[in-house]
Aldehyde dehydrogenase family protein (Candidatus Aeolococcus gillhamiae), 498 residues
Amino acid sequence: MAIATPVAERTRHFSSSARALLINGEFEQASSGKTFDTVNPASGEVLASIAEGDAQDIDRAVRAARRAFEDGPWSRMTPSERGRIMHRIGDLIMEHADELAELDCLDNGKPLTIARAADIPLAADLFWYMAGWATKLNGGTINPSVPYMPGAEFHAYSLREPVGVVGQIIPWNFPLLMAAWKLGPALATGCTVVLKPAEQTPLSAVRLGELMLEAGLPNGVVNIVTGYGETAGAALAAHPGVDKIAFTGSTEVGKLIAKAATGNLKKVSLELGGKSPNIIFSDADIPAAIAGAAMGIFFNQGEVCSAGTRLYVQQDRFDEVVEGVAKAAKAVKVGPGMNADTEMGPLVSREQFERVTGYLAKGEQAGNRALAGGHAIDGPGYFVEPTVLVDTKPDDVVVREEIFGPVIVALPFSDVDDLARQANDSEYGLAAGVWTKDISKAHKLAKRLKAGTVWVNTYNVYSAELPFGGFKQSGWGREMGEEVLSNYLETKSVIVQL
Ligand code: NAP
Ligand code: MG
């Protein structure tokens, strides 16, 4: 791999010094004094040492969040004041966009150009959008009918109140953006937070912690405990002082979170895996659909929960489309994310590299044929070729399981009924893509697909305004949009007899 562009001095300084936990507005070492390393996946080299928080640190952080929720200035601020702080957080993210993009590029491996164009502005926009909700969380007036109290008159209304102390556990694929998706609605609703970033990519969350204090967020409102899922994450999910847990990551860990939450029956929202179908009809704009299928899987190294991993193509255009996608796969410029012309970086970690190459080996054993890619790329980093697999059967492991890498499987379909059955034949239901010029067909199919998001003649379009989440084992609840607010609010009915 070619030598990558050097990072800016400010980023180098931040990413190369030891990073601490953020508890009650102070950066502190872990109680145990332990640290772990975060690695640059483009080179395998250690970037920085990070405080390894565990159950004891989680407990300190939860107590700080509880104090900030019950007594702190945060709960006494007006919604407008809270919204203005959130707006400043968005502004500061954009003022530091180059640095944050470099941190996510170094820590995660993703192309710098993509982090700068997508991850960072989306994170800022999420805070701006959610800042507007802080002043609009109103209940309603209600006129109750009470059959056993004839003649009685009431004045009744509902209040929407923050759920309390929230635990948030996030993955490594969009490090800053996943932190923003979680923190934005929690802050808009007036909750306080303990956030646990993924062990692979803690840097931008810690930097965001600094920026949030600079924006005027009171101490203890957001606490950040870096560390491992099995220790810090599990302790957060089980903690009796946490009122709600929000998780994004694998379906397997999502089930552990749901179990851990039963102790105090904390509220749970889950944004989990996917195996999303991207569907191309014969009447589609074929060049646009081919480009969309390639982007739908190779964007962010395929490490996207909504990636279009199952490509369904109507039989008579199948060969043409899969050859087009294979050609696009071969043209993707793979390299270190810091290089300006890189289109796809390395996978995030050795573990993820082994997981993805393990699936490629399973596919080969099952007789799947790689029209493009199919192998790891030599080098010190965790690079895998953009891969297009054909000759797959509906029950093959690569068709059923989430690979979370740049691997697409292609299958033919005959008509809409055959397609809808195949597309919905998955334990997941996160997203789907439909490519056709027939607008009625697109809308009818959008209704039949069991997926939380359906993209028509486009793919991977995200916006703070659009609810995002999954049917079936892709999760509970929605992120973003107005809908996410309900994850963080309790509704109270107040009834006054007149
Ligand atoms: P993961 O284990 O589900 O990690 C997600 C988050 O959960 C991380 O912060 C992780 O901490 C934490 N965690 C792990 N075990 C936990 C536990 N027992 N209790 C509480 N928190 C826990 O995902 P992964 O291992 O990084 O990736 C594995 C697979 O998950 C991927 O191949 C992909 O299929 C899927 N995935 C999905 C998404 C998505 O957006 N839906 C994102 C990432 C991964 P540590 O990282 O510190 O262990
Ligand atoms: Mg893990």
Observations:
- Residues 169-173, 196, 198-200, 228-230, 233-234, 237, 248-250, 253, 256-257, 271-273, 305, 355, 402, 404 surround NAP (ligand 1) (CB under 6 Å).
